[in-house]
């Protein structure tokens, strides 16, 4: 999410039970996932891992949530693994967002 207040709300709601990683935009999120992937394939295995769930804002500067979702589905999907993604938005019309998210591979 590109809004710090929204990030703080999510962190406060989930942070006591889960490791919450924040990203201000789609490029930051993809860069974090790339670092996790590299760490998992090297000696740094215990330091980082792919997330169990991604909350992804639809409207962000630069790459939109839809752009990030397409990248995720292209890179991080295999026959036995699919990162769950929940798309969120305070601004996009619900029907449009739901249909687009589902067709792009949202969980």
Per DSSP, the total helix count is: 4
Let me know the largest β-sheet.
2 strands, parallel
Mean pLDDT: 79
Our estimate of the beta-strand percent is: 5-15%
Q: Note the run of SSEs as H and E.
A: HHEHEH
Structural class: mainly alpha
Distance between the termini: 18 Å
Number of DSSP E strands: 2
Shape estimate: globular
CATH architectural designation: 3-Layer(aba) Sandwich
Helix content: 40-55%
Radius of gyration, taken over Cα atoms and rounded to an integer in Å: 14 Å
What name does the CATH topology carry?
Answer: Rossmann fold
List low-pLDDT spans. none
Count of discrete domains: 1
Strand line-up of the largest beta sheet = 1-2
CATH homologous superfamily label: Response regulator
Pfam families: Response_reg
Modified residues (4-aspartylphosphate): 57
InterPro entries: Bact_response_regulator, CheY-like_superfamily, Sig_transdc_resp-reg_receiver
Protein name: Response regulatory domain-containing protein
3D architecture notes:
The protein has 107 residues and is mainly α. The chain has a single domain, classed as 3-Layer(aba) Sandwich (Rossmann fold), CATH 3.40.50. Helices cover 44% and strands 7% of the residues. It has 4 helices and 2 strands. The chain has helices spanning 4-14, 26-40, 65-75, 94-103, and strands spanning 54-57, 85-88. A two-stranded parallel ribbon has the order 1-2. Strand 1 (54-57), helix 3 (65-75) and strand 2 (85-88) form a beta-alpha-beta unit. The longest helix is centred in the N-terminal third of the chain and has 15 residues, at 26-40. The chain is globular. The relative contact order is 0.16. The mean pLDDT is 79. This is Response regulatory domain-containing protein. Pfam families: Response_reg (PF00072). The modification 4-aspartylphosphate is found at residue 57. One of its GO terms (biological process) is phosphorelay signal transduction system.
């Amino acid at each position: 999410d590109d809004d710090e207040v929204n990030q703080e709300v999510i962190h406060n709601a989930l942070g006591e039970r889960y490791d919450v990683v924040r990203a201000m935009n789609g490029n930051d999120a993809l860069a974090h996932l790339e670092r996790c992937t590299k760490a998992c394939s090297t000696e740094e295995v215990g330091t980082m891992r792919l997330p169990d769930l991604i909350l992804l804002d639809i409207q962000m500067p630069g790459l939109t949530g839809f752009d990030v979702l397409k990248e995720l589905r292209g890179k991080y999907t295999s026959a036995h693994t699919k990162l769950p993604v929940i798309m969120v938005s305070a601004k996009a019309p619900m029907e449009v967002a739901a249909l687009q998210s589902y067709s792009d591979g949202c969980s």
